[in-house]
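Page 37, continued from 36.
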């Protein structure tokens, strides 16, 4: 039997921890104010409950402490910026900057577009062109980026159809329908796009605090909708990188490993 000293064992465990950190799948929740809400923490809890643990949410922003109280021990990192628009992100290159600030991002979980309609009054074609640019920026940073893309939740017309734009709710519905067709069309074998339908089944009155931003019930619905696609994307990265877990951490599968499993 080979004896391992305490310092050696500590060094091995430290190395294993570093390898685990390097090999964990990096997931960036990306968007505007709705991304700051607690559905992210709820999703994190659901992923872990489903046995998906080799991942790390990343981003320059931190969610509210209330989300951590609701879901203790969950990851609060994200890249959601209140009031932001997809068209501005695309024009200013914000996403590229944020991707460069993080370790290599493997998965982007995207929910973005309400403000382009409600605040920016942008034509739908203009918003779609901005989405094109954002996808290009993601894939320039990582040609194998896994993209989990949701359409928008509906808004309450009584609260958000205003004198400046009496068609906000209809335009949100129209954009959501466009995303439903658009997102799958952007999928490739190297960089899949997983469409998530958060529009269907979401009640803008009972599932929001203000006719737009999700309440507790809305957060639960969104997390449940995101779960299958997020799980699939994270596991796809793990499979493609050939990561298997060992006693001391993680190592890459070698050709010898593959021959032994045949």
């Amino acid at each position: 039997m080979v004896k391992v000293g305490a310092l050696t064992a500590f060094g091995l465990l430290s190395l294993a921890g570093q390898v685990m950190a390097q090999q964990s799948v990096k997931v960036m929740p990306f968007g505007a104010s709705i991304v700051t809400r607690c559905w992210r923490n709820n999703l994190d809890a659901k992923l872990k409950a489903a046995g998906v643990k080799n991942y790390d949410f990343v981003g320059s922003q931190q969610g509210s402490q209330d989300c951590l109280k609701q879901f203790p021990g969950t990851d609060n990192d994200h890249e959601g910026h209140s009031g932001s628009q997809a068209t501005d992100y695309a024009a200013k290159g914000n996403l590229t900057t944020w991707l460069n600030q993080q370790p290599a991002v493997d998965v982007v979980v995207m929910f973005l577009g309400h403000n382009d309609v409600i605040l920016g009054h942008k034509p739908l074609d203009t918003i779609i062109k901005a989405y094109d640019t954002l996808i290009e920026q993601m894939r320039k940073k990582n040609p194998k980026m896994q993209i989990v893309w949701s359409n928008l939740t509906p808004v309450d017309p009584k609260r958000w159809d205003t004198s400046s734009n009496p068609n906000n709710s209809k335009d949100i519905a129209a954009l959501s329908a466009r995303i439903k067709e658009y997102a799958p069309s952007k999928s490739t074998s190297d960089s899949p796009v997983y469409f998530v339908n958060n529009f269907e089944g979401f009640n803008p009155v009972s599932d929001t605090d203000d006719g737009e931003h999700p309440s507790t019930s809305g957060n639960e619905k969104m997390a449940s909708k995101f779960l299958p696609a997020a799980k699939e994307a994270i596991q796809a990265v793990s499979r493609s990188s050939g990561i298997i877990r060992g006693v001391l951490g993680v190592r890459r599968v070698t050709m010898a490993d593959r021959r032994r499993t045949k």
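The domain at 24-261 is CATH 3.40.50.1110 (Rossmann fold). Flag for discussion at group meeting. The first strand starts at residue 25 and ends at 31.
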